[in-house]
Amino acid sequence: MYRYSIVLVGVVVAVAGLPDSEPLFSFNNGRIGVNFLGYKASAGLGGLLTGNAADGGLFASAKTPHGQEAVAGGIGRAGNSLSAGGLYAGAKTGYGQHASTGIGGIAAENNAIGGTFAKAGTGYGHKAGVGLAGSTSPDVNDGLRKLLNSLFGKQ
Q1: How do residues 93-135 score in pLDDT, each as one tens digit?
Q2: Which residues contact 54 (CB under 8 A, 6 or more apart)?
Q3: Which residues of 118-132 are buried (b: 16+ CB within 10 A; e: fewer)?
Q4: 3-state class of 3 per DSSP?
Q5: Do 87 and 96 meet the contact criterion of CB atoms below 8 Å apart?
Q6: Which one, of 24, 91, 87, lies nearest residue 62 by Cα?
Q7: Are 129 and 151 in contact (CB under 8 A)?
């Protein structure tokens, strides 16, 4: 008898001690999510499903209650003499270490712009990053060079 009471009290305390969180399943803005005891996973089509570019594109992500996270995705659009797209991926450990990378580009009638980046950090103040961008327009190339120098320092 006492054994069952202790187990019941333990379950009630464990459940009552859980923080308020998202529902077990969620669906919004073209995203489906699952949340179980703080472990979260989501995936979606974003704006591809909703028709709104602000909702993003194809992606998947996962997160633990201890701070580890990973995400990857991509988005693209074509129309009105313009095509654009990009891909990205990133992860962090929960202890400050992180890494991410991405690539993107735009092609229009008279110009094309593209770029890529990668960066990482140790969590102890050490960080490294690199980026590369280019365009078919000299004016745009000058602006990209200034942007990359401000982000990563002059090389």
Answers
A1: 988 899 999 999 888 888 888 889 999 999 888 889 888 888 8
A2: 47
A3: ebbbeeeeeeeeebe
A4: helix
A5: no
A6: 91
A7: yes
The secondary element (H helix, E strand) that includes residue 141 is helix 138-152
What is the CA 14 to chain-centroid distance, rounded?
A: 32
> How would DSSP label each residue in 55-87?
G--EEEEEE-TTS-EEEEEEEEEEETTEEEEEE
Per-residue confidence (pLDDT) for residue 45, from 0 to 100: 85
- For residue 82, give Cα distances in angstroms to 30, 86, 118, 140: 24, 14, 26, 17
**How is residue 35 written in tokens?**
């949340």
Closest by Cα among 51, 55, 96 to 73: 55
pTM: 0.68
Distance CA 3, CA 109 (A): 76
Sequence-ordered strand ranges (E) for 20-138: 25-28, 31-36, 39-44, 58-63, 69-79, 82-92, 98-108, 112-121, 127-135
User: Quick one: tokens of 18?
Assistant: 């859980």
Query: Is residue 50 within a helix (H) or strand (E), and if so which, with residue range?
Result: helix 47-50
